Amino acid sequence: MARKEMGRWSLHVSVGLGLLALLLTCCYAEVNYCYAAKGKTCSECLQTSIGCAYCPDEMYTGPRCDLEQNILAQGCSAAAIITAQSSMQIEENQQINMKLQQSQVSPQRMSMTFLPGEKRLVDVEVFAPNKGPLDLYILMDFSNSMADDLDNLKRMGKELASVVGSLSEDYTIGFGKFVDKVIEPQTDMRPLNLKQPWPNSDPPFSFKSVIKLTSDLEFFNQELQKERISGNLDAPEGGFDAILQAAVCKDKIGWRPHSTHLLVFSTESAFHYEADGANVLSGILKRNDELCHLDENDQYTEDITQDYPSIPTLVRLLRKNNIIPIFAVTSHSFDYYEKLKEYFPIAEVGLLQEDSSNMLELLDTAFKNIRSKMSIQAEDKPKAFATQFQTTSGSVSQYGAFNFKPGEIGKFKMLLSANREVDNEPVCQLDQDQKDGIMRVKPTTFNAAVNVKASVLCPTCACEQARVPDARRCYGNGDLVCGKCQCHEGWLSTFCNCSASAASQDSSQCIGPGSTEACSGRGDCTDCGMCVCYNPKRFEGPYCQYDKSQCQRSGGFLCNDRGSCIMGRCVCTEGWEGNACDCSRSNQTCLDTKGGLCNGRGKCVCGRCECPSGIEMTSVCEPNFQAQLGVCESTRYCVQCQAWKTGEKKKKEECDKCIFKVIMVDELKERKKVLDSCSFRDEDDDCTYHYTVQNPEDKKVKDLVVQVLKKKDCPAASLLWLLPLLLFLLLLLALLLLCCWKYCACCKTCFQSCLALLPCCRRGRMVGFKEDEYLLHQSRLTSDHLDTPMVRTGPPKGTDVVRWKVTDNVHRGPNHPQALIKPNPKEIIQYPISLRLNRLFSENLSRPESRDAEQLRKEVSDNLNEVYKQIPGAQKVQKTSFRLQRNAGKRQDYAIMDTVLPAPRGNYPDIVKLTEKNVQSGNLSDLKVVPGYFTVATDREAAGAIEFQEGVESLDVHVPLFAKEEDDDKKQLLVEAKDVPLGIAEIGKRLVNITIIKEHASSVFSFLQPAYSYSRKDGVANIPISREIIDDVRTQVTYRTRDLTAKDKRDYMTVEGDLTYLPGETQKTVPVRLLEVGEKNVLLEDKPVKQFVMDLSNPRQGAKLGRYPRTTVTIVDQPEPTVMMFKKATQNFSTSDPTYTIPVVRTHNQDSPATVKWRTKKAQRFDLSGPLKFGPGETEKNIVIDPVSHPGPIKPETFQLELFDPSSGATVGERKTTLVNVADGAPKSPEFAQKQQQGYINSKASSPANPKATATGPRSIRLKWDPPAGNPTGYKVKYWIYGDPEKDAQVMDVKTPHADLTNLYPYCDYEMRVCGYNAMGDGIDTDIVSCQTMEDVPGEPGRLAFNVISPTVTQISWAEPAETNGNITAYEVIYTPIDDDKKPVGAAKKVKIDNPKKRMMLIENLQNAQTYQYKVRAKNSVGWGPFRDATINLASQPARPLSIPIIPDIPIVDAEAGDEYDSYLMYSNEVLKSPAGSKTPSISGDDYSMNAKWDQNFLFPGGSGTRNLSASSSPMSTLSSNYQVGGGTYTTETSTNYVTGPGGTRRQEMLIGGGGVHTSEVIMRKRSENRGYTDENIRDSIVMGDLSGTLQSPDARLSPGVPDTPSRLVFSALGPTALKVSWQEPHCEKDILSYTVIYQLLSGGEAKRVNVTNPEENSVIIQDLLPNHSYLFKVKAQSQEGWGPEREGVITIESAVDPKSPLSPMPGSPFTLSTPSAPGPLVFTALSPDSLQLSWEKPRKPNGDILGYVVTCEQLHGGGDVRTFQVNGDSADISLTVPNLTENVPYKFKVQARTTQGFGPEREGIITIESQDAGAMSQYSMQSMQMKDISQMPVQTNDSMLDSFFSDGMMMTTQTSGMVTRQVTKEVVQRSVTGGATVTKKMFYES
Q: d(Cα 1555, Cα 1331) in Å, to the nearest integer?
């Protein structure tokens, strides 16, 4: 039993001391990592953080792991404490020798050990010589376009030597050349062109080092003269291969170790980079191994086996080898290299003339710029360390950038720190190579470095080896290790003296001293006498005896909001102390205007000066003349007592308190030379004395200089001296009476309190205020209310309602001037009213703009207005808001309503009574409230009630403080508990005195407004804090942010600190970083509004807080602008039409109103304009023009309408103009007249009335109408996809006035019209009705692609679903570890991505060598679609470092580089924009999963790895490729021709129908960008409709089971001789078995056939076409019942050709698709710098007779008017001269044929006249390009992309018609055409 009692006592003592330790710890820092490890072993303790100590004394009962000072304070012997110490040693430190002309650093070598969390600051010096050694290597593009550049370089050899000599006295110079990979499509592989691609040129090559770095300039010039140009096909060059080889082949190039390395990269083209080698023609996929591969001739040998390097790879390797790149590029590619430069720590870009004539000036400028920069970085830094570089003054240098001048020693500080944790893992648990290593700290351009050998010290304790088994201290039930018991199994507690199996259930062990209940009635008593509190967030302690809400308060705030309530007392945060944490340790607030402490007169206590009594002083003990009505008034009595021994302070003890000594003089100084001149009458002798006051000239002197004139001015004698005496006696009498009154009141209160404390006099329970008084400073108030606690003692059973009141300005006596002013009882004042609603508070109620808050606010207003209308003169309530009340007992979660009632002042008693009466009934009209709580206030008094529910012991009273500008400097409020109308409690402590001191502020701090809104896209919220200057001195104020709905480190980064305002400063800005969506966890919470607040507090140096001490910041995502545009590009009317109705449609953000203006242009009869207003939800409005209302006859004409000047938040879409054609009105036909006579059609040509279409599902629409006049026997409903020609419409025959359209596309716009018919024929069609089908769940996302960063990190990306069926709103990614049977072996993790534009994510910390299944699905407004899944094991992928290519909005990270690269690799959101994909090492498909290395040579569609790839070759070239698709492969070698040129990746699509021309725009349907035919790589595509031009009648149906005609043909250009043909599956009652594609020249010739035996495939690739030749294509489908009808289409691939070989495309020329009805290719000829000639060929198959052409011209990037030219005639070759152009500005031209049937499709071209050569045109594109394509893509690179060829799971059989057929199974197949023989081939898959 004794042992048991001993255990209990020891346990509670240890717990108590542990809690005491926590209190001590919290006083030192907010986070004590050592104390957090108190339960760990000795070694784990020392390894936790720097400063941790361990006490192994077995008699010690406190926390064993803590800060050393804390352990000592708790009684541990200093000799026993175990600590650890790190070390630092400088091993080599040679001083910098400025005479030595080479780069130097000091010190050179040092070693350090760090404890976790430790930091060290080291001084470092660097020196860069004025003219140090220099190595200059020139790397030049040798493609044919650089021929003149090479000639100029040869001529400037001597000048080059002169420039280099001016840069350095010790230099070398070298030369290298590059072109591109010698393989298709980069190079023309025909043998003749491989030998000599251009006249007088060398064979093509990738890179060759021509001249090794040498100082022999004569040799350099001689070798340079021998060089000849070479050539390649595609525009981007392979310069990155050359840069990498020049960097890593140090010996081959000749780089010297102690010189500055410059690499000049000269080109006029863009560049290939990683993954551009992975294409269908070359088959290259192997990553660059970053090694030197130069042969004995210094030529690169691995160009055809390795990919180009990535940009991060180049950055790392150039930096590693101290090479600075200088990009000398022409204007064609300058923008791209300018952006590329940003990724290098130091690099320069110079604009090179077209012939490189300014090369020398460029080098000189670039080198001077480089010498002015220095970037310090730490290389090879272990993961456990962090570095920071600072100036000598201690400010941090961003990116390590310093402006050290050459020839001078630069000094900086290096801060090294060891991380305490890395990725939430203790640093001591990392691998050895991650916590030890040698860092090289150096400028980027230096070879010399400070070598820092750094290691993390992970100490261990020797006492852990001296284990005492079954120690007596542990009662034999455990081992004693380092003074701590480690219990055996089955034993518990600190000393192992409590059995787990027979644990005591005696609850007496849980009863604390002075308590009668176990765990104080607030918890459960568990084994071994341990209490588990019911509410740990509120109760704590070994017996749950402490309430966390009952610590002392300051200013109404618990622990002054500067600490935490722990174990019944406030534990303050660092910098604060005191029982209520209201005492600041800082003395910054005690600094006077001279920088001294309390002006040397007082003591700084709790951050405030305690000044000696005497005269009035400021808060820093400086004389406060303003408070004393000036300097004279404040000094008069001290002058009087010292000079004359008279006055109020004539007593010696009073006079000695004066803070200055007077100087008696015979003559005073002039008034203007002193601070003030004073004169006063001495009451003792009625004489006037004079003196002056001035500040001391010596600032070290604190006292004022007061000089008093020795001689007084005395009047004649009188009896006036008796008056002051009488006044004094009267004042004394009044003072005595006041003291008596106060003394009696105090005695009465004390007497009542004493009686209440006696048991015999106590009547049940007592209620009363907890605090006696508060002293508040108005400048520190952050609220206009004070929460003061009221407590209840005695049995807490039953309910007590306590009424209270508060009175303002009780310090004013009845005769005070303000008290004598009687207020006007009829004056309308504001009555703040607070009620507790009978409903729980929700987060939405805190947002005034939320729907919940708005509805509740209306309900409150309606009911309160109903109640208070009984008050005469009362107005409607206003400013209603909702909040929570802290410390409100059981009602804490209920909403408090605050509102304001304007009413006459005299009605205050009536309002209080009416409110109390309704509150006690629980209803205010129909508004439910909680009885027992209300507050009614005026501007000078308030009354209210609070309710103690059963079991509640403490409540807060929300007391208004009535803070006003006109308040006295020191005012008092009295809070009084009046009575208990409900309950039996007696009132104990009845009164609370509140004193508010109003300081005379030197400055007033305030936010400019109470709320701000910022978009996440802003990145930073800049919050201005203004200062109103009253006394222009140095002041300070503290700011801090706090969470509301926005969370720190998720939505924003919290900030806290002090702002210092120097004299004259009135405003400063605090930046708060706003985090992007997903920056932390890739997740967004579904909360539309995120808010946080920023508070001002603790104004210092006499300042105070002003109007807005708090501001609320709302983080919003700006909605995308609404888009308004014309519905159609062309509108057709006739002169007989009564009105012209032109529809304007609106898309995106349709919930807000929007306005756009419109106007007519080039109209003959009228000039109209006006606004068009869209209301919320409106999507279409009409512009109606009445031609009759304008003067003049109505004639045929053509004019334009233009939209302009959209309202805020809106924009004009791509169809900002529409062409209005007014033709002659046709007379009514005889058939029409006959129908009128039969009564079927009335005189107004009526049709079925009021047609209305409603979507009934994602694939169905119901069309309803009113029957027309006449006797229709049925109706014909025509419907078609918006954008398709009406002749392609499907027709439905119905007998009822409604029709259900089914089998439609989801989320697709349809147009429809209906007409009636009877025996006489068809009636008149209705107007077109539009309707959009409903959304459906999206299809599965496109193929998944993986970037393998490491065996545990991958980047996964995916394509948008082919069938979005709506607007994609989110994606979900699930990844699960699985075994070989694909069964889960761990928990699945789910990530939701709310931004549909970010279709990729980085997944880290995967299990090494573990196979994972990844699943991705998309969501729209309907719901989630099906998953796309893939399986991959990262460990099976290449283990070499993989660089992530440049992808928008994805950080570029080089896996092999250290953390220092993060500082400048940045985010790529505009640079070198490429498709949303990457390196292509891994890809998933439908039919397989990958657990091994992906060994393909071609990446198929849907995968994010696709990229703009070169796909160019010479005519009739031979190529070979390996293909892998689905589950098999096929290999082919064929003759083909791919030539690309500049152009965009945007598709150009045109609609053809019935051999005619459809005049609608390129977009087939409004949602076409979300559905079908959206391969981003397709250069040009055309969609063919039904060429038959007729609609099948119901009687002309095909035989059952025979397929219909394929519904659509899509042609997609892949090159000038290749295209992709796609079609849509036709309707068939039986399964489709196969397809056949037949094509031949339109002019005749052999027909070729391609059989597609896989019915799942609906596309083929045709590669043997001739450029500029029209082909007829036919596609038909087969079922068991036979072949269906054919779908036909005529198509031409137009391209510039070699004049000498018309069948061979020109290298680099653009290509585009054309229908026979489009004008021929546009040909531009420059006539002058401001004019050109445009010519074109007439359409090959016009739709009707050609009347002429319309040509429009506009600037590509906007600006200027759209110019229109009319060209009449029908000649074969037509030309137009266009004047008044601007040079170097790109223009877009459109040519459109005007025929008897209307207008044909447009042909577009983009052209720029460049000023360098007026006769030569820059490259241009004959196709439509998006503006972003022009501005962000290299002009020369727009190659065919990989996924244009095949789709998922494709199987295809292709054969040509002929006599010979053979089956191909070999890896390589040669196909040739000789004479009239044809070789037939079949391609199939090997399983």
A: 28
Rounded Cα distance between 1653 and 1635, Å, is 7
The pairing of strands 1697-1698 and 1701-1705 is: antiparallel
Count of other CB atoms within 10 angstroms of residue 250:
15
Specify the pTM: 0.37
- CA atoms of 569 and 142, how far apart (whole Å): 80
If you count them, how many residues does the chain have?
Answer: 1887
Report which of 1144, 1139, 1168 is spatially closest to residue 1155, judged by C-alpha positions. 1144
Which 8-state DSSP code applies to residue 637?
H
Is residue 1636 within 8 Å of 1655, Cβ to Cβ? no
Cβ contact 1431:1414 at 8 Å: yes
In angstroms, the CA 1270 to CA 1280 distance is 27
Residue 633, helix vs strand vs coil:
helix
- 10-residue stretch averages of pLDDT, the chain, 1887 residues long: 44 43 41 73 88 87 82 83 89 83 84 90 85 86 80 76 78 90 76 79 89 88 85 77 93 87 87 66 66 91 86 87 87 82 83 76 76 74 87 73 77 88 85 87 78 90 88 87 86 77 63 82 76 79 83 79 80 80 80 75 81 70 61 83 87 85 89 83 84 79 83 70 80 84 52 44 74 80 84 85 91 79 85 92 82 88 90 90 87 90 91 90 88 91 92 90 81 91 89 83 85 83 88 86 87 89 88 71 50 88 83 80 87 86 87 88 83 88 86 84 88 87 64 46 57 90 84 88 84 90 89 87 85 89 77 80 87 89 85 81 79 91 88 66 31 34 28 29 31 30 31 30 32 30 33 30 29 34 40 48 81 79 85 91 82 88 83 89 84 76 69 68 81 83 77 82 85 81 85 75 77 38 32 32 29 29 27 30 28
Interatomic CA distance for residues 1452 and 1460, integer angstroms: 13
The answer to whether the beta carbons of residues 1747 and 1768 sit under 8 Å apart is: yes
What are the structure tokens assigned to 1529, written together?
Answer: 């492969």
HSE value, Cβ hemisphere, 13 Å, CA-based, for 1555: 6
If DSSP states are collapsed to H, E and C, what string results for 348-383? EEEECCCCCCCHHHHHHHHHHHHHCCEEEEEECCCC
Would you state the structure tokens that stand for residue 711, as one six-digit string?
């001689």
Measured distance CA(1131)–CA(1221) in Å, rounded: 6
Mention every residue, 6+ apart, whose C-beta is less than 8 A from residue 506.
529
User: How does DSSP classify residue 1463?
Assistant: H
Alpha-carbon span 1575 to 1360, nearest angstrom: 11
CA Rg, the chain, in Å? 45
Interatomic CA distance for residues 384 and 1313, integer angstroms: 72
Q: Please give, one letter per residue, the 3-state secondary structure of 1110-1143.
A: EEEEEEECCCCCEEEEECCCEEEEECCCCCEEEE
Encoded amino acid at 512, one letter: G
Listed in sequence order, the residues at least 6 apart from 1620 whose beta carbon sits closer than 8 Å to its beta carbon are 1578, 1610, 1611, 1612, 1614, 1659, 1660, 1661, 1662, 1844, 1845
Q: How many Å apart are CA 1257 and CA 670, to the nearest integer?
A: 97
Answer for the pair 1201, 1128: CB distance below 8 angstroms, yes or no. Answer: no
Q: Strand ranges (DSSP E) for 968-1009? A: 970-982, 986-987, 991-997, 1003-1007
Please count the CA atoms within 13 angstroms of the CA of 187 that sit on its side-chain side: 27
Please give the DSSP secondary-structure letter assigned to residue 499.
E
Between CA 1358 and CA 1365, with CA 1359 as vertex, the angle to 5 degrees is 130
Q: Are 1880 and 1869 in contact (CB under 8 A)?
A: no
CB atoms < 10 A from the CB of 872, how many?
Answer: 11
Which pair of tokens denotes residue 759?
């048991």
Q: Left, alpha or beta for 856 (phi > 0: left; psi -120 to 50: alpha)?
A: alpha
Which residue spans within 1548-1589 are E strands per DSSP? 1551-1553, 1556-1557, 1580-1584
